[in-house]
Design brief:
With about 210 residues, the chain is α/β, with parallel strands linked by helices. It has seven helices and five strands; from the N terminus they run αααβββαβαβαα.
């Protein structure tokens, strides 16, 4: 195991964990002064005030958790890539296919390999396919190969169809699309670092403290 990368990712995990906890505590305190008159509608639908409070509470916590989880994993993968390829960088390219948006961002460019790194993508928005199709065409037009690395695949039928269409788009333009186990394997093969194993060890060390 690359201990330098491990320590870097672990330190980042510590920072994110503290920031997440602070955001959650702050929101819980804010919710104490919330107007809960909408609980009436919950009760009409058979949900008690107590259950409604839990729904609102965990919905708020979930929003913060998803945000921090996604940013953390995407940054951890980038750290692995940059440890192997110091020249790797985030860049913006001109959209040569349409007028909106004017530019697209490449999460991690290594040579001509343009990585889009996502922890997961559960979108069900059809416009997402159009925008993503434009993005990868623009990447290809700029001389790069688009590579999507998504660690967790959606579980709902409509979101899965969106991802299947995106995978077809990537392959049709000469790009690559990795998700689930193949995404973890891609990072391991591309960088020589087993990111999944590192995260397992960090998670286990936190559980041991409890």
């Amino acid at each position: 195991m690359d201990m330098e990368v491990y320590q870097t990712i672990r330190a980042m995990a510590d920072i994110y964990a503290i920031e997440l906890q602070n955001q959650v505590y702050k929101r819980i305190h804010e919710m104490e002064n919330d107007d809960n008159s909408h609980y009436l509608i919950y009760r009409v639908l058979g949900v008690s005030d107590y259950e409604g409070h839990l729904v609102d509470l965990y919905q708020n916590i979930g929003r913060f958790l998803y945000k921090y989880a996604g940013t953390f994993l995407e940054n951890a993968a980038t750290i692995c890539i940059m440890s192997k390829y110091p020249e790797a960088r985030k860049v913006r390219i001109t959209n040569t296919i349409s007028v909106n948006p004017r530019q697209f961002e490449i999460d991690c460019l290594v040579g001509n390999i343009a990585h889009e790194i996502k922890w997961r993508d559960a979108t069900t928005d059809g416009d997402h396919i159009t925008k993503e199709g434009t993005r990868i065409k623009a990447i290809s037009a700029n001389g790069y190969t688009p590579v999507r690395v998504m660690f967790y695949y959606p579980q709902r039928e409509q979101a899965i169809r969106i991802q299947e269409n995106l995978e077809t788009l990537y392959h049709s333009i000469g790009g690559q699309y990795y998700y689930g186990d193949s995404a973890w394997k891609y990072i391991r093969d591309f960088t020589g670092i087993d990111l999944h194993e590192m995260l397992e060890q960090i998670a286990e060390s936190r559980e041991d403290r409890k």
